[in-house]
Structure formats: C-alpha cells, structure tokens
Amino acid sequence: MELKKTSAHECVLPTQDDPYDPFRHRRVKKPSPTCYTIIHMLKGSLGTGILAMPSAFRNGGLVFGLLGTTLVGIIYAHCVYLLVSTSQKSSARTRVPQLGFSETAQCVFRHGPHATRRFAGASKAFIDYSLLIVSFFSVCVYLLFIATTLKGVIGAKLEIEWDTRIYILLTAVPLIFVTQVRDLRYLVPFSALANTMILVTFGITLYYIVRDPVDLTDRHLLPELTALPSFFGTVVYAVEGIGVVLPVENKMQHPEHFLACPGVLGTVIAFIMVLYNVTGFFGYARYGQKTEATVTLNLPSEEWLALSTQLLAAVAILFTLGIYYYVPMDILWRKVKHCFDPKRHNVAQIAIRFGIMLTMTALALGVPELEPFIGLVGSICSATLGLITPIVLDTVFRWSIDGSFGWYRWRLIKNAILVTFGLFILTVGTYFSIKDIVAIYG
Question: What pTM was estimated for this model as a whole?
C-alpha cells in the first residue's frame, strides 16, 4: 500500500511491512561523489574556528587541551553519527527518500512515544530557528573577526588608535551590500576564493608558529576549573558544523559511504582532530599567555607577510559571509514571505536583510571582544544543535522501538551522560562567557 503523502514535511507511517531502502528512491540532480562530500564536510567545520584553537589551549593547557579536543571530536562525531543514522532510519520507516534536519526531528517526534507526538511541529520549528540563530550569531563572530584583524593591521602600520567599534562600523558598510546578494550562483565563486585564502592563511600561520624552536617551560599543562567552560565552548564552536551534515548527506551519490568504516565521517573527523590539535598545541606553545583570540593577531606586525596573512583571513571571511547569510535567509524567507504582498517581496527581502545586518552590527558593537563571544556562541548554539539535539532525537526514536536500547539499556545511559555533558557546556559555558563579558564592560 502506498503512502498518502511522502513529502519530508508530512511523514506518514506505511501500512505494509516490506522493507524500504531510501537510498534507492532518492532522485538527486548531480549527486556528489564521496570525495566531494568529504570536501564539503571539511568546509563545514574548517573556518576561523581553527585560528581560535591556540586560545582554547591557553585555557585548557597543553595536555588537557589535546585530550579535551580529542574528546570533543569523538563526542561530536558520535552525535553526527546519531543524527544521520536517525535520519536514515526515519526515512526508511516513513518511506521518504531523504529528510533534512528539521524534517527528521518532526518525523521522530510524530512517530515516537505518544507523549512526544504533540511536539512534532514544535521540534521542527525549534531546529529551524536554532539554525537561524547559529547562522546569524556566526555572522556576528565573523564581523568581529574582520574588525579585530583590521584594527591590528591598520593600528600597527598607521599607528591609529581607534576603538574596535569604529572598525566594526567600517566593516559593516560593505557587508550591508554583500548580504543583499540572493543568487547562490554569484556567491559560490567568492566562497571558493575564500576557501583558498583560508588555506593560505592557515599555511603561513603554521609557518610562523613552527619556524623557531618552541619553549614549553612556562606553559600550563592543565586548566584552571574556571577556564574549562571557555575551553569547551571554543572547541565545540570550532569543530561543530552540524548544519551542513544532512544537506551534504542527502546529495551523496553513495550515501551508504557516509557512516561506513572507514567512511566520510571518520575520515573528516580524524583529519580535523589532527589539524586542530596541532594548531592549538603549537600555537599556545609558541605564544603562551599572550595568545590572542585568533592566532593571526599574534603574528609579527613588522613583517609584511604576517600582515598580508591577517588581511587575507579578513578578506576571506568577508567573501564567505554572503554564503553564510544565504542559508538562514532562505529559511527565514520561506517562513515569512506569505506575510507580504507578492508585489512587495523584493522590497521586503531588502528590508529584512538590512534589518538583520543592522541587528548583528549592534550586537557586535555591544560586545566587541572576540574571545568571550566565541565561547558564548559555542556554549549556547553549537552545544544545543551539535551535541544535545542529535542525542535527544536518537533517544526518542529508540524509545518507540521496544528493546532498541541494548543490554541493560546501555544506550540510554550513554545518551544521558552525553546530554549531561552538553548541558554542562550550555549552562556553565554560557554563565562564564557572560561573566567574562560583564567583567570586561561592567
């Protein structure tokens, strides 16, 4: 018997028991080979967050930094595994070829235990709006990154002692125009150029970090307890890229390769962990307690190569912001466009994009310090979406299937421990990040 509806928004359980393979029913135009998927996943996690890893190690210490970063990487990989696995199983259960993040949540709650079914619509809305918040907060972080970088470069060469807020306002001017671009075709070339710039920036930064012998005599090996939340918040923010996972998996030519061993997920996480640990360890070992929120600010200001690296990073983020803005605006516009007369859609889009950009600029002006803001975004947004949500979805899905928690319900115990870890980052990390912000401006 066929389903009454097979859209991702209306998941209806089938009335027949024959197995359904969602991979065979996917119809994707120009599906991505496995190697392309790996590149897309790397792009989702690699960004300016890697330049904040030395700052994370400054809070965590050399030994705990290595262990903590690896632990976060393993937990994040497991959460991605749970999310993709739950999405694939929900697709098979509801006979829908593919599901996005919010559609997966809706289906899981709709066909979960009876008590969860009334939250199906709310769960979908929660994911959509959480993705919006994460994306817009990331725009704010990138705005601060560009402004802080410009302050370091211009201040070093022209000896101008301007406040960071002035650079935020200057940076916001081109961003107002960049964020008005709505056609993805015009944004992709700039994104590709930005990725190249980030790689060049990373390579030159590593050169400065390792070009001289490193002295470890006065470097902390372990963290102070009050610095732990900032450490975890920064690392989670740097590693997490949960928003791109299901869109990328849904476009794979061989989606079964994503969770295979070794597969896309294992390859990407292993590469990222090596890269992040090397950057964090040697960056902190090089600069010690003087390590800045982004390590490019520690590069010697008297050398043009170092200054050009800082400018490259700033320009790369400027080019990337258009595509970062595209995703949340696409979600938001689909939700609100019915509120406007079709004849005024163009004006409405311009006004909404401009208004949100002004709001993000105002937020950056209120908190022009990069490091505590990165910790705050990591604690609130990344912990919620990247850690807690996939575990909750896995738990609700398994709860509707008798005996699926395993021997002595070990999976339920494991999920409870991981949710506790996520809540620790969310609550304690948020508290200390806000406390740091208040201490700076209080």
Answer: 0.82
